[in-house]
Amino acid sequence: GISNAIASTILNPADVVKVRIQSSVNHATSEHPAIYYKPRQTFLKILKEEGVFARWGGLYLPGITASIIRELSYSAMRFGLYTPAKHLFTGDNPKDPGLMVKILSGGFSGSIGSLIATPTDVVKIRFQKEAGIVKDGVYITGLHKGMKPTYNSTPEAFKTIYNEGGLQGLYRGWQPTMFRACFLAAAQLSTYDHTKYLMKKHGIMEEGTKLHISASLFAAMNTTIVTQPFDTIKTLLMTHHYKGPFQCLVTVVEKNGPLFLYRGALPSFCRFAPHFTVALPLWEEIRYLLGLKPV
Fold it and tell me: What's the confidence (pLDDT) of residue 88?
């Protein structure tokens, strides 16, 4: 949890860019074209209009508190349950359990963590979607230009969403969130674990930081490919009014085509790659300090 919270804090701007692209392009029309549509364009536009740090906007701060809370809950469960899950599926067999067991273990740990942390995801994404510069009580930049801020703080956001929609409001979009978390953890942890195993088995690298970073990059690429469609649907469900994930999926694909599901894939990879190369090696170091074996 700590290793992921550190990485997420550093890399929050990539999440901000991704959410604005997904939200802007999906509701664009010929009369109101998307104001955010490509990673570089979105990054530069936010930087020019809002700067890096701003009270309600900018590249760095939107959703960062909820993001840290999310990592300390969801990622702690995702990483912490992975090794026990492998033992659960294989017992105390000292041999490598195989790729399928690693995939199942990652999916199991990610699903459990997601069920606990979905409300933090809802709050984080809503802050990132509506972020902008506020003047005289209304946004003057961003997707909510001309509107008042919905929430004044992260605790208020949790309280307001609960008061308006109960647990159903806090768990809005939990289905694609859980599926994404399941596939993310399955892809991330199994790719990282099995890449390490294969590289050591074939004498390419030995256990150490170089191996951890190399395996992390492979995991980032595979995770982006596997999870981006779930991430897009999750973002749209949490920030727009769709009846459910299937209706959202059908509507989005009919309007924008199937490739829209990979909208935001580049900023996702740009977040995953450095995030994984910080969090996974740091996870290994923490395990070492605690007297635990490498993953």
Answer: 86
Q: How far apart are CA 17 and CA 5, in angstroms?
A: 19
What is the reported pLDDT for 42? 93
Q: Which of 30, 49, 242, 267 is nearest to 145 (CA)?
A: 49
pTM, rounded to two decimals? 0.77
Cα–Cα dist 256/24, whole Å: 12
Contact present, 23 and 90 (Cβ < 8 Å): no
Mention every residue, 6+ apart, whose C-beta is less than 8 A from residue 172: 122, 165, 237, 238
> Which residue bears the tokens 């892809």?
187
The CA-atom distances, in angstroms, between 288 and each of 62, 207, 283, 293 are 34, 12, 9, 7
Query: Residues 177, 118: contact at Cβ < 8 Å?
Result: yes
Closest by Cα among 291, 288, 290, 275 to 78: 275
pLDDT over 80 at 196, yes or no: yes
Distance CA 189, CA 183 (A): 10
Q: Extract the tokens encoding 227.
A: 């999870």
Joined tokens for residue 170 = 């806090």
Distance CA 83, CA 179 (A): 20
**Tokens 């536009």 -> residue:** 45
DSSP secondary structure letter of residue 188: H
